[in-house]
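User: Could you check the structure of this?
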Amino acid sequence: MQNNRRNTTFLRRLLIVYIAAIGLILVLLYDALNTPLLNVALVRFGFNTFVSFMFLALGVLVWLYARDRVTARLMYGVTCAVMFSFALETATDAGSLFAQTVSGACSSLALLLLALLLLHFPQDMFATLSQNRATNRNIIRLRLLQVYIFIAGSLCIVAMTYIGIYTIAIPPAWLEVCYQLYNIVIMAGIVGTMAISYRSTSSVRERQQRRLFVWGVVLSLSPLLLLTVIPEALQGIIPVTAVDGQLSTVSIVLLPIAFGYSILRYQLMVLDSYVRRVVMSVSGVVCLAVLVYVAQSTLNALMSAHSSPVIILLTLSLLAGLAPCLWYMAKAGTERLFFDEVRHYRRFISTPTTAGEQSLSFDEVAHLLIAAARQTFEAPDVCLFILDEKGETYHVSPAAAGGVLESGEQRFNHTIISLLSPTTAEAGLLDRERNPLIFERIAAAQRPLLLKELLAEEQPEPGLMRYLNIRQQEQEEMDTLFAPIRAQGVMIGILVLGPRGDQQLYAGPDFEIVETLIGRFAPFLETARVTLSLKMTNIQLGEANTHLRDANEQLQALDHLKDEFITIASHELRTPLTAVQGYISLLRDYNGEEELLPVAMRAEFLAKADLGCEELTLLLGNMTTAGDIEMVAQRVTLADVSLHNVTMNVAEMFDSLVQQQHRTIEITVPDEFSVRADAQALAQVLRNLIVNAIKYSPEGTPIQVSAVRQGEQIALAVRDFGKGIPPADQTRLFQRFVRLERDMNSPTRGSGLGLYISKQLITAMHGRIWVESSGEEGQGSTFALSLPTVVVYPEESTALSINKASPQLAAESVIR
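Assistant: Sure, the predicted structure tokens are below.
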């Protein structure tokens, strides 16, 4: 329905264009029939025809594509009126009354329509004053404006009447006065309107459009004024040659171009930069033409005054040297006068100069880019998406402090993400793999893209529709611009600009300014991005180095343990092995000699050799168990085990050794105590603890084995009365191959594995093992272990403190 309505409207506009074109052709035919067959007249007719078609073409372009339809109607009326005036100029000069009447009437009508156009464009004064009626001053201004329009319209009718009467009779004097008054009022109104509107408007765009109107008129009429009118006025004073009006009026074709361009400039998509180059080139050509005229006039004056050839040559050289300077000044002046808006934007872009003066982080550069975009376009909603290190997604940058964004900024970011990548909207990321077509369009775009272009399902329409934006104002709620940021051929980011603050569309110079803005900040963004990537790489390398250093330290520790193991194993195994070999050798050597080796001594040797074998078996068993302790711990089978029976069985194994050393093992373990444990593993642990107590305490001192119940656990303690263990060394006792420094060179042998194996086995049975000792001589040490009585794995582990002055155990604290 909407497309049909749009097509119908466009066809109506085309019908009006056809009517104007047919009227122009008929007028030109009439003009040709009334043109004398002279070279000068034919040249003038051809030039006027060309200018007429130029006005028609620019009028048609505005009429078909301008969004503001009131401006389009007024501009179309002005161009058509001027078009008919030029088309009938040759017949008017030839004396055709019809041509004079129509041409004069069209000229008067063109002035009135131009005055109304300037009241409406680029700033609608009626709408502005009507919306701001709060003050009496605005009401008075509105009334004066209405009076001005009424007087101008009335005088226009009188002027057209005067022209119609003048062609057939002599009009009354008062009618001629009214005609001249009309011209004065209209011209004064046009000049006053342009001055007042230029000073009152605060919009850069509106000032730029007004400037294009003014300087377009100046540039198109200045050759006629400088080359023809002024020289003709000065011919009686100084010897100058006036240029034929046929040549000096060629620049009049710039007038419709200036009018049309000023209206359609902010609907252009990509042509603005080319138009500016053409305008600057035309300005340079006009200035060079004036310079050539000045050079010719100067040469004529010098030759008529019979000046010397040297002076003539120097003058011509000076004028020739001025040509490049004049060309450059003409182009620079044109940009300053016609396109000051671009310079205005560039000043905003160059404001944040700190990006190149110091080393900035990635987020700081992003802040500067967003701030420059907001200031340049007065756009409150601006966001920046940056490619991540993996090159898969784009994330919002800069990251909000604490993950919190302002409500408006967050809402705009979420809207953009929802449009481009709905599936990752919750994560706040743009995933180009989910919607590759959109990202391909952005990456391949030669200029920033509007939202409607980005989401369009079809290719851009051919012809002018590709370069013009003709959307109506009510459809511009979401006029958003997407600009790719490239570095090294890769799209590293996307700058998204929300609607402009002045409620205008993005068009014309905006695309160039956006590219200039991105070109300024893209190197800093890429540098910060690479720097951040290098920092992350350095962090990862640092972590890898830390892991390697830790692994190396572990290898060194293992190597040290290996050396310690070899040293300890060779030392510990050699001593009992030497004893066994010695006693066996004695038995072999004196086996048949009863007088030298009595039976009692033989029994003693056998007992000591047997003891050495047992010690070797224990050492080898510990070493084997330590090497395969994880598998041994996994094979632990828990069951209800009588703690009293295990303790008594282990103690019986040491009866002969205890009697030999004149010591006792005092056992205080109630019969009813039972624990959840592996009987064999528990016996091995208890055997290791008793062996250590015997080794590291003097002969004749007792060994105390006691047990107490603590809630759902039972604690078993083995205490000796030896040298004790310094507190600084207690934390190392349960590690592999650890022996105290004082014991390394003592007669007491050990592999440093018994306590390590005991801890692993107790841990596998869900228990704990620890040591308590003051380190004082004679106070000895207490090794304690605790095991659950039932299958309960408490959330809190219990650490028991052993009372060193008593063989009894007491719980003192709970480790939380």
